[in-house]
Amino acid sequence: MRFCVDYSKKGTAVCRKCRQKIEKGVLRIAKLVPNTFSDSGGDMKQWHHIHCVFEMMRHPKAIKLQNLQELDGIDQINENDKQLLKDHISKLQKGSRIMSKLTIAKKASKASEDNDESEEPCDDKLEIFEKICDHVANEASYNGKTKIFAQFFEKGSKNNGFKGDLYIWIKLLLPAAENRVYNLQNKQLIKIFSLIFGANQESMLDALNESGDVSQVIVSYFDKCKTMKPCTESILTLHQVDSFLQELSTLTKEDEQTSHLKKIVSKCTADDLKIIIRLIKRDLRINCGPKHVLNALHEDAYEAFQNSRDLKAILSELNNSSGSKNVIKTQLMTPIIPMLAEPCRSVDQAFSKCVNGIYAEIKYDGERVQIHKNGDDFEYYSRSLKPVQKHKVEYLYKYISEAIPTGKSLILDGEIVLFDKKNNKPLPFGTLGIHKKQSFKDATVCLFLFDCLYFNGTNLMNEVFTKRRAVLENNVKPVSGHIMLSKSEFVKTRKHLKILMESAIQNRLEGLVLKDAKSIYEPGKRHWLKMKRDYLESGSMADSADLVVIGAYYGTGNKGGKMSIFLMGCYDTNSKKWLTVCKVGNGHDDDTIDRLQHELKDIMNPIRRDPDLVPDWAKINRSLVPDFIVTDPKKSPVWEITGAEFSKANAHTANGISIRFPRVTKIRDDKTWKEATNLAELIILFNKSTEGWSLNEELDEVDEERQQNSSLCSLIRQVLPRNDKRKRDSSSNSENENLSPSKRIS
To answer: Locate the ATP-dependent DNA ligase family profile domain: which residues (predicted)?
Structure first.
């Protein structure tokens, strides 16, 4: 093993151990290893921070530096840094070692720093990884899947003890936990591999539509390829695959991606390529998640993972401690799985769940964001723990520092919305998109904060809600239209909660979030409650319409090759055209989907999403052209489609009216296209979707006075223009009153 040393030139290289960038001008050391992905051979430099590389060398099997002369480039290093390196080597030679202390993790875990030994551990072969994945995929029981992992991590592939790198195994078994972005969707992969194999791209796309599994399609064409045959024996290791994926994540140009993929293909068996494609897609198709993998290591490993997504830190703590979840510390700049809310279907349910008192907050119709601040450094993570797109948060930096001047290190939970400063109201979901945002000249990106997980070195997740809320209120100075506190109000009675909910509904808000006064912050747990209109009264308060099936799309995953997503529409009696309202993929069980394949087969024509093949009777936006179109919409089935609310979506042609979160609630065999909802009726339903909501008759004047005095109700009223309700009131008299009977919360 050879090493070299220099000063970081650009600040873009990533340390192989801690995965953090090595800042420009910082002293660094690289291991020189053979470049297995270069046809011309040569060495590849694996850069490390100084403290990281010497920490790695303290492990018993690691190759160690004996003196400065073993470092290429040492002559270019200044004397102070040479002395620093001498001190590290001296300490290393005194025999400092890190010893394992845990049971399974102790037996299983070999530090990832041993990766570069000349001989790969026998259990770190890609072929073994593929066999374990196949075994797990064929096991139906989730407990059985965990047992397979546990036995392998204890006994290894030869039943003589696991001989591999536990970190690299867990990392690749949980590809969705990595923040790598490959910028390769199914169609891009098909295009690239059609070039590599010299295959017909359209033919591959057709096969993808029928199969739904892009990895299987690519492998089938790999088997048929005449210019590049699959290897007969698997030679790749997990570390080689991980290095390949890391470099792939840095490539954004199609020609670079094609060249890089072509190199790995030349070293792959068919099964190797299939698993690599699935790693790129971040889905191994083994039907298990982090809980089933991590529970194989320790009963607390999954909960530790929810607190910190840093797999290396988790395994290190498990390896050097009692293995308790409590030793896994919250880390700045490492996302925490957000706490979630379960549907609340009645006022009584809310009070039975929140036994210590209820705090109600407005449920903002924006995008969940987790903010990490460490000094002047900021990171923003989405609900799925991916970095938030820059254009959505780029203006928040200065306002957060202004709003929280005492906050040096923070982890905050909130919602970003586009806020209309002119009318003092949040704008609807979806307006944060870079193009839509530009059309709202008087709007700014606003962050509504509703929780604090970490403040100036103190982890607050185990503190009760009221204390976490107090930290927010005592330290946040709102900046109007930019950084604001979500209004939180203590709910005194059931009638009080009804008032708040009805006020939210009448003002077109999504609903309320309810929190127990003494609840702690539990990552990934659905221990908050969300009260929305479509959850109440067994869903009878939701918006719905009877729509006609006018098209269908192939599904993906286990629904690949089947019509499982459907384009729903309505008839316009004026233009005599069929217009689109929504796409729906929820509501049918697997048996119904299978039955529909036969029932719809004779009334559907395949058009392969070709806009030129859309018939004249349909008006469909190019982006929504389906894989199949019905031959005659007047003979097509009618389904009742229910959703959270009617919404505006310019992509749909029914006056831009759509249904948010649609699902099929009933197949209306009793109705034909004539009885289905037409465009005129749909417009009335849309306009009246918030009409007819009134307080329960049992509420007396005291309750009405409480509504007037409620700070949360006051805030709810502020989010609409003052004349908005008057407009709705004046228009309601001219509309069909029988379409939307009065509904009440009980």
So the answer is: 438-572
Q: Phi, psi (5° rounding) for residue 95?
A: 95, 25
Question: Measured between alpha carbons, how far is 305 from 178 in angstroms, rounded to an integer?
Answer: 12
**Does 708 have pLDDT greater than 80?**
no
Q: Which tokens belong to 427?
A: 């704008």
- The reply to whether 363 belongs to the active site is yes
Residues β-bridged to residue 416? 367, 447
Determine contact, residues 300/321, Cβ cutoff 8 Å: no
SS3 at position 744: coil
- pTM recorded for the entire structure: 0.71
DSSP readout, 416-468?
A: EEEEETTTTEEPPTTTTSHHHHHT-TTEEEEEEEEEEEEETTEE-TTS-HHHH
Between the two ends of the chain, the Cα-to-Cα distance in Å is 73
Residue 615 CB partners (closer than 8 Å, separation 6+): 629
Beta-bridge partner residues of 369: 382, 414
Spatial separation of the C-alpha atoms in residues 742 and 692, rounded to whole Å: 4
Flag the least confident range among 55-64, 530-539, 574-583, 649-658. Answer: 55-64
pLDDT band, residue 94 (cuts 50/70/90):
low
- Helix (H, G, I), strand (E, B), or coil: what is residue 265? helix
3-class secondary structure, 234:
coil
Contact partners, residue 685, CB within 8 Å, separation at least 6: 543, 545, 646, 677, 739, 740
List residues bridging with 27 in a β-sheet.
7
Q: Of 274, 325, 363, 495, which is the active-site residue?
A: 363
Rounded CA gap, 666 and 256, in Å? Answer: 49
- Say which residue the tokens 């992992």 belong to: 149
340 neighbors 525 (Cβ within 8 angstroms)? yes
Average pLDDT of the residues in 102-116: 44
Residue 553, SS3? strand
Residue 522 scores a pLDDT above 80: yes
Strands (E) in 225-301, as ranges, are: none
Residues in CB range of 152: below 8 A, 6 or more apart: 132, 162
Please give the Cα distance from 56 to 450 (Å, whole number). 41
pLDDT tens for 306-336 read 888 889 888 887 776 554 554 456 789 989 9
Residue 295 CB partners (closer than 8 Å, separation 6+): 146, 150, 301, 302
The pLDDT tens digits for 464-495 are 999 999 999 999 999 999 999 999 999 999 99
